[in-house]
UniProtKB/TrEMBL annotation:
GO function terms (MF aspect): translation elongation factor activity
Taxonomic placement: Bacteria, Candidatus Blackburniibacteriota
Keywords for the protein's UniProt record, in alphabetical order: Cytoplasm, Elongation factor, Protein biosynthesis
Superkingdom in the source lineage: Bacteria
InterPro entries per the UniProt record, alphabetical: EF-Ts_dimer_sf (IPR036402), Transl_elong_EFTs/EF1B (IPR001816), Transl_elong_EFTs/EF1B_dimer (IPR014039), UBA-like_sf (IPR009060)
Name of the molecule in the record: Elongation factor Ts
Region of interest called Involved in Mg(2+) ion dislocation from EF-Tu, as start-end residue ranges on this chain: 81-84
Recorded GO CC terms: cytoplasm
Organism: Candidatus Blackburnbacteria bacterium RIFCSPHIGHO2_01_FULL_43_15b
General function of this protein: Associates with the EF-Tu.GDP complex and induces the exchange of GDP to GTP. It remains bound to the aminoacyl-tRNA.EF-Tu.GTP complex up to the GTP hydrolysis stage on the ribosome.
Residue ranges occupied by any Translation elongation factor EFTs/EF1B dimerisation domain in the UniProt entry: 72-148
Localization (cell): Cytoplasm
Keyword Cytoplasm: yes
Family, similarity comment: Belongs to the EF-Ts family.
Length: 150
């Protein structure tokens, strides 16, 4: 099946994965965008799992303080390279994770990863991290979390 440029562009803008992966997924799914999304998600999770043993050498510290000043949180998010740590996708993940910690106050990293994601309860925080890892092609891990309440 011939895949249209419009389909590829739409999924690229939505998912942020490589054009070749999108083209392959659309061809495999006979142009069905929902099936292509599922194939891309599965492929991304498989990539993330393969990369999970790679060494973390870079990352960022993310913080959030609620406007009342009564709630705050910090998350140390690690990745393999500083290049990935500067990407918009990594920055967005860090901001989402620190909001998650501030909202639900997880005590440990494993507890955080098991929580339902506050913006989409159909997935866990661990799944969100794996999806981002698959998109960016690097091992991404939450190294430390801390929440503060008055």
């Amino acid at each position: 099946m011939k895949v249209s440029v419009e389909h590829i562009k739409k999924l690229r803008d939505e998912l942020g994965v490589s054009i070749s992966d999108i083209r392959y997924a659309l061809e495999e799914s006979d142009g069905n965008e929902d099936k292509a999304r599922e194939l891309l998600k599965k492929k991304g999770l498989e990539r993330a799992e393969k990369k999970s043993e790679r060494q973390i050498k870079a990352g960022r510290v993310f913080s959030y303080i609620h406007h009342t000043g009564a709630v705050g949180a910090m998350v140390v998010l690690g990745c393999e390279t500083d290049f990935v740590a500067r990407t918009d996708e990594f920055q967005k993940l860090g901001a989402e994770l620190v909001m998650q910690v501030a909202s639900l106050g997880a005590g440990t990293v494993s507890e955080l990863q098991g929580q339902d994601y506050i913006r989409d309860s159909s997935k866990t925080v661990g799944t969100l991290i794996q999806e981002t890892s698959g998109k960016l092609g690097e091992n991404i891990q939450v190294k430390e979390i801390k929440s503060f309440r008055v």
